[in-house]
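Quick one:
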Amino acid sequence: MKAEKELRVCEKGHRFYKISDCKSCPTCDKENKPESGFLSKLSSPARNALVHGGIDTLQKLSKYTEKEILKIHGIGPASLPIMRSSLEEKGLSFKYSEIV
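Output:
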Protein backbone atom coordinates (compact mmCIF):
# COMPACT_ATOMS: atom_id res chain seq x y z
CA MET A 1 0.00 0.00 0.00
CA LYS A 2 1.56 3.27 -1.14
CA ALA A 3 1.43 6.31 1.14
CA GLU A 4 -0.32 9.42 -0.13
CA LYS A 5 1.65 12.62 -0.61
CA GLU A 6 0.36 15.39 1.61
CA LEU A 7 0.34 19.05 0.56
CA ARG A 8 2.22 21.23 3.02
CA VAL A 9 2.99 24.92 3.27
CA CYS A 10 6.11 26.18 5.06
CA GLU A 11 6.44 29.36 7.14
CA LYS A 12 7.51 31.29 4.03
CA GLY A 13 4.47 30.12 2.06
CA HIS A 14 6.21 27.58 -0.17
CA ARG A 15 3.91 24.72 -1.16
CA PHE A 16 5.31 21.19 -1.38
CA TYR A 17 4.25 17.57 -1.08
CA LYS A 18 5.68 15.05 1.42
CA ILE A 19 4.94 11.46 2.33
CA SER A 20 6.92 11.42 5.58
CA ASP A 21 6.56 13.49 8.76
CA CYS A 22 9.64 15.47 7.75
CA LYS A 23 8.75 19.15 7.89
CA SER A 24 11.66 20.50 5.84
CA CYS A 25 10.67 22.55 2.81
CA PRO A 26 12.65 21.67 -0.34
CA THR A 27 12.62 25.29 -1.53
CA CYS A 28 13.88 26.62 1.81
CA ASP A 29 16.52 23.86 1.88
CA LYS A 30 17.88 25.04 -1.49
CA GLU A 31 17.84 28.68 -0.37
CA ASN A 32 19.64 27.86 2.90
CA LYS A 33 22.27 25.50 1.47
CA PRO A 34 25.73 26.73 2.44
CA GLU A 35 28.07 27.50 -0.46
CA SER A 36 31.14 26.08 1.29
CA GLY A 37 32.17 23.96 4.23
CA PHE A 38 31.38 20.38 5.07
CA LEU A 39 27.63 21.02 5.39
CA SER A 40 27.49 22.10 1.73
CA LYS A 41 28.68 18.63 0.68
CA LEU A 42 25.88 16.76 2.47
CA SER A 43 22.33 15.98 1.36
CA SER A 44 19.56 18.21 2.70
CA PRO A 45 18.26 15.60 5.17
CA ALA A 46 21.73 14.99 6.59
CA ARG A 47 22.56 18.70 6.75
CA ASN A 48 19.24 19.53 8.43
CA ALA A 49 19.67 16.70 10.94
CA LEU A 50 23.11 17.91 11.99
CA VAL A 51 22.13 21.58 12.20
CA HIS A 52 18.98 20.72 14.16
CA GLY A 53 21.19 18.75 16.55
CA GLY A 54 23.53 21.73 16.99
CA ILE A 55 26.35 20.13 14.98
CA ASP A 56 27.33 22.92 12.63
CA THR A 57 31.12 22.82 12.77
CA LEU A 58 33.72 20.11 12.25
CA GLN A 59 34.91 20.67 15.82
CA LYS A 60 31.44 19.79 17.12
CA LEU A 61 31.19 16.83 14.72
CA SER A 62 34.49 15.45 16.04
CA LYS A 63 32.96 15.07 19.52
CA TYR A 64 30.72 12.24 18.26
CA THR A 65 31.42 8.67 17.24
CA GLU A 66 30.31 7.47 13.81
CA LYS A 67 27.79 5.23 15.54
CA GLU A 68 26.26 8.20 17.40
CA ILE A 69 26.01 10.22 14.18
CA LEU A 70 24.30 7.35 12.36
CA LYS A 71 21.64 7.22 15.09
CA ILE A 72 20.47 10.74 14.15
CA HIS A 73 17.34 10.63 11.98
CA GLY A 74 18.24 11.90 8.50
CA ILE A 75 21.84 10.68 8.48
CA GLY A 76 22.64 7.64 6.39
CA PRO A 77 25.81 5.64 5.77
CA ALA A 78 26.46 7.52 2.50
CA SER A 79 27.10 10.69 4.51
CA LEU A 80 29.90 9.18 6.61
CA PRO A 81 32.68 9.20 3.97
CA ILE A 82 31.94 12.88 3.23
CA MET A 83 32.07 13.78 6.92
CA ARG A 84 35.15 11.61 7.52
CA SER A 85 37.14 13.24 4.68
CA SER A 86 36.05 16.73 5.76
CA LEU A 87 37.27 16.00 9.29
CA GLU A 88 40.58 14.57 7.98
CA GLU A 89 41.20 17.70 5.85
CA LYS A 90 41.25 19.70 9.09
CA GLY A 91 43.30 17.17 11.05
CA LEU A 92 40.25 15.95 12.97
CA SER A 93 38.39 12.65 13.23
CA PHE A 94 35.27 11.17 14.73
CA LYS A 95 35.49 10.46 18.45
CA TYR A 96 37.06 7.07 19.09
CA SER A 97 34.62 4.48 20.36
CA GLU A 98 36.08 2.00 22.82
CA ILE A 99 34.51 -1.43 22.76
CA VAL A 100 34.04 -2.61 26.32
